[in-house]
Amino acid sequence: MPSTRTMSHSQAYSSPTQGDLDVLSFLTSDSTNLGPLPSSSSSQQQSSGHGGQSEKKKSLPRRDSPMDALMISAVIAGSEKISRHHFGHGARTGAYASCDESRPTSPSIQPPKLNMRSTQAPRSERLRLEAEAKAKAQSQNQATSSSSTLNSIPIPTSKSPHSPLSGSVGKDRPKRKMSMDPTPMSQTLQLASPSSSNYFHPNHSSLSIIPNSIPQVGRAKVRCMARTRIPTPHGELFLHLYHNSVDAKEHLAIVIDPIQLDSKLKKLAPKGRREIRSISLDSKWREGETEMERIVRGAYVGRLLPGQTESNPNTTENDIEMDSNNTGTEQEDHNDVKALVRIHSECYTGETIGSMRCDCGEQLDEALRQIALPQHLKSQVSQHFHQHAHGHHNLDKVLPTPEPSRSSSPSSSAALPTNNGRTVPGRGVVIYLRQEGRGIGLLEKIRAYNLQDLGNDTVTANLLLGHGADERKYDVAAEILKDLGLGTNEEGIRLLTNNPEKVEGLQKEGIKIIERVGMTPRDWKCSTQNEHIHSDNNHNHNQDANVIDEEKEYKDWRERRSGVGLIGSGAAHGVELERYLRTKVERMGHMIDIPENIQ
Ligand SMILES: Nc1nc2c(ncn2[C@@H]2O[C@H](COP(=O)(O)OP(=O)(O)OP(=O)(O)O)[C@@H](O)[C@H]2O)c(=O)[nH]1
């Protein structure tokens, strides 16, 4: 073989030649079957020149070590430069950097050599620190679980030893620097934003080495950590973020209560209507907390305005007048609509990328839309009758699903003639629980989808993965509702769902449900409308040109609007959605009628 020194660069690093492979095959073949080398040109040259060696090789004992082949092929491959050995690369030019063979070769532009040095503490030292942290955490946890009420749990502050603001190893945290801010605003912000981890969670704070399975004692505790105003296609709402004592998830409450932001709407509401506000957020978190702290966490009244530095009630003259009306000697008007509530479970696929395997995205959108709708308030007499007939906690007694109609109000009360009452602003909340995939998580849901693609329905796929059909719980949702002053004895709720387990789950946690409001998939409503167009078509042959145009226009519109990745968008539809909805009705007992035209 020619010496690599005399070869060009490309030759030196090209693949092995046929001759090389022949030698490799010869050297690694069973010695008992050794015959003449295969007749390639190079091998012929070799056998003519080194016939004696070939004979000698025959007499060598058989060598079975598999390492031989590897070592020889490494020699044939030759240079380190085509090696895929990452250790060598890392040592010379930085980890993995030289996997690119086209890297510059000039020594002047070679990356600096890496000096690797272990900074790991000795194991004994690490174990000692872990044991110390564990003991500290356990004693703290005992102290926490012995306190039974929400108020007895300390509010985190930057000075509190278990606050994440106090730093992970008890050292002083560097102060946030705000170059344009001469005032101590940075400190205010720190006080007002106590935690980026779950305040109630056992792993909260710097003491993270705690056994995972600390049993939950007593009922779930929740605390609203912050709220803010969000403008949406369905109007302005308040997003509340909650921590809880059950899991490390940040559950949300999306409150729609327009009277909090619009004084004109407030005037239209019945007297004494309570605003939907978080008790835990509004409470005093520590002695001497500042207005700015309250503002930053969202514990303000009314609407924030530029330059505002006080957490003040509505300040317009009208508002003041109205407030005095409401809180004076005048009787509160109890004839008000009850808050419409949806307990919604997180669905990344349906809500973010517009999956049409389920109807979760449109349900979230539809729930916000329905809650924001103005409501027809019934007269005192019909309201009294309604509550008397249906205001029981028993699941069998909740109201039947109202007629599906996209344009009408969600409530059965919408069917009342408008002269039998008056229209008042809507109010309610979507509790957004981070219970992805009916509680099994996104990873498992993705796996379940693959099992569904093999022909299993949504329930069977869960079971095949070793999960329950539905692993969700509603204890945290119930506590959030109570924190918002909803579902208690004074203020029962209307629940937007078809799922009987949700109704039962909330009732078990002490939530008073005075009405169940059903949710009809938009596609089913559209199907019904389509069917209507079809039947019209059959009866009016002479109008077919117009009707077909209309139908096509409607179909095009529907196609454009299909997919529900964004709030305010259209309907989910398709064969897979049909299958999912049917399974919910047939196997999970969801209380909704499948329209005849799609059965
Ligand atoms: N495991 C699993 N979860 C799913 C699937 N499709 C949707 N989900 C999840 O199901 C939850 C929504 O539950 P649904 O059963 O659709 O509806 P629901 O909330 O129980 O009932 P409604 O209140 O009537 O809407 C979300 O957490 C979704 O991520 C699926 O195929 N498999």
From TrEMBL:
Biased composition (Polar residues): 1-18, 184-198, 308-329
Compositional bias annotation for Low complexity: 39-48, 136-158, 404-413
Pfam family for this entry, one: GTP_cyclohydro2
Family: Belongs to the GTP cyclohydrolase II family.
Superkingdom per UniProt: Eukaryota
Record's protein name: GTP cyclohydrolase II
Pathway: Cofactor biosynthesis; riboflavin biosynthesis
